[in-house]
């Protein structure tokens, strides 16, 4: 697969028309776009205020009232703990990003006995989320918008989704999502390895949102898949390491990955399994990052678009990194969807390469992006299977082809790709302002 991607990059280099006096301003404009979508201190404080409102509501619910007579629970105001995950936890969020929360800790059953939340079945989890929904609405924390009312979605992981009544911010609440919390904290650590990861991800995320490709409920990619795509692209450029190197020095064997054993139990028994995550390994990540950052900074950081390529064109700037991302994954989708080649290959950021082994997947998915911490999970499963899909893969391919075309000719002011991303930013900002005005009308 990487040989095909390398050939596609070579073809792109032959076809591209980049005026030397334009690439510098285009890079500058892309960085200004990133600066514009980075959150401010006020936005950070506003999100923390929204989290505090949720904590206050939970503290007033009988389900989470501590036993004042119990010495073990003395001093506690609420049995439930509110933890942040997702983009706010990893510091990859922007003004319009959802706020992802997960509740951990304990709750009271109908007899008043405190129990661990991991003992809730999926049905009981949904019932709990319905009670939380009513409490949020009654306290006017959740906006009672008839067009977008608070909703409990009975998905594989039940989730309560609502709009914050003060900020107009979209909030998702789950129970005991240790996996999500662990992944978010890991992404924050990985972003410290090389700052270009965060920059390229923010641009890719902006492009995907503008093209309607970051909407898993409608058959396109979730944010975790986009994250894996950016990580994999930068791994091929020797900018980021294979993810196993963030936890250990020796190459991995066939042992279950960090979150795999628990996920296998949940899929097998379809019953509550004690949730956990190896949070202690995040300290190991910090140590490994400090150890290998100098190695990657001195070798291969600015090498060719593919680690397997004979081409040695330097990746001089952000524009070329972004164009390389579009070229790489356009070629991947062409090979999979149009030519039917490499269909058994899986993209694996844990190993840092393509492979055709690993855990068995029950469905024949259109795209295979293996979760780095659970080989049994395909992060691109929302795009559907060969027999059942909503056309998301083809929309993704069309958008990648359009992005490649926009980045081919940079002979006018700042270039087509940078201008299109800036336009996407302005469109989204305008939509946010309109929604805000409507909210206060």
Q: Which structural traits does this protein have?
A:
441 residues, alpha/beta, four-stranded mixed β-sheet, globular
Compile the SSE list and pairings:
Blueprint: H1 2-15, E1 17-18, H2 20-37, H3 41-59, E2 80-85, H4 87-90, E3 99-108, E4 114-116, H5 122-138, E5 151-153, E6 159-163, E7 170-175, H6 178-191, H7 195-210, H8 223-236, H9 260-269, H10 281-298, H11 318-338, E8 346-348, E9 353-355, E10 369-371, E11 374-378, H12 392-406, E12 409-410, H13 416-440
Parallel strand pairs: 1-12, 3-7, 8-10
Antiparallel strand pairs: 2-3, 3-4, 5-6, 6-7, 8-9, 10-11
Helix pairs in contact: 1-11, 2-13, 6-10, 7-8, 7-13, 8-11, 11-12
Walk me through what this model shows:
The protein is about 45% helix and about 10% strand. It contains 13 helices and twelve strands. Strands 2, 3, 4, 5, 6 and 7 form a six-stranded mixed beta sheet that branches. Helix 7 crosses helix 13 and helix 11 (about 320-340) packs antiparallel against helix 12. The termini are far apart. Mean pLDDT is about 85; it is low at about 265-275, about 305-315 and about 430-440.
